[in-house]
What we know:
Blueprint: H1 7-18, H2 44-53, H3 56-60, H4 79-97, H5 101-110, H6 119-129, H7 136-147, H8 158-165, H9 176-200, H10 210-216, H11 220-235, H12 245-263, H13 272-288, H14 295-300, H15 306-315, H16 319-330
Helix pairs in contact: 2-5, 4-5, 4-9, 4-11, 5-8, 5-9, 6-13, 7-8, 8-9, 9-11, 9-12, 13-15, 13-16
Amino acid sequence: xxxxxxxxxxxxxxxxxxxxxxxxxTSASRGRERPEVPCSIRTDFQRDRDRILHSQSFRRLMNKTxxxxxxxxxxxxxxxxxxxxxxxxxxxxxxxxxxxxDLTEAAALGHDIGHTPFGHAGExxxxxxxxxxxxxxxxxxxxxxxxxxxGAGLNLTWEVRDGIVNHTGKHMASTLEGVIxxxxxxxxxxxxxxxxxxxxxxxxxxxxxxxxRDILGxxxxxxxxxxxxxxxxxSTGKPYIQxxxxxxxxxxxxxxxxxxxxxxxxxxxxxxSKAQEMxxxxxxxxxxxxxxxxxxxxxxxxxxxxxxxVCDFISGMTDRYAIxxxxxxxxxxxxxxxxx
Length: 340
């Protein structure tokens, strides 16, 4: 019978023999903040992936907005489906470049794990009521380090946490695998947000400038394929990740087109001000009544400010739960007599 204690060692040996010289090998990881006995059949990056996948915060992503708030249709993206699309794109790029697919997958699955309800409307609300420096990517790091697992955190490796916190914004991840997640995130949302906007009737493919369609492709899968293959062509055998210049310029212009026609579209964003106002009211309420928060956040108030803990609580809410809590606090219930 096979000795399963050596399975992890075989994975590590396979990494050394098959991956690019620019890959981040599991054996070269900076490790975890709290040392642990290694798993017998999984590498540390594989273990991180599983911890993220089985976390409560990850499951809640299925009921958090991507772009369209509480859409009636079943086929609009949520924060969960966005995350899965990012992960698949990132894995394909990592595999093609000979980089560490397990590290890439773990960082991609965790990149939005701390995202607020109602998408970026929720992020803006937290910036207004808690801290102008609040961002969903910093909150994602806080979730895996401080909030998940009933306050114990997931104790992920340094490289996975680095990939999560640097998936957007000015800074770049320290590994090429983390940089891939940054590219994959943008490729995913640019293309699936076009798809959802067309489904919502606020955009059609023909609205996209002709020159961008000529370069990137007419359809959803064509555009993704163009961007992914461009990264692979431009980055193979290189110590960096990039797109070919023509494709990068076209992708940037397509993103600008989306901001002008979808992300700032008054139809698509008609409910955002209501969502923000609701979260602001919830924040004010729980700052006044922290004892009404769940046990984890009440406990944290002993070490951190009430405002910090309320922000954690609200940021972790799903869209549906936030509406439920708000309705319970501020919407009067219809009174029915005993004989009705």
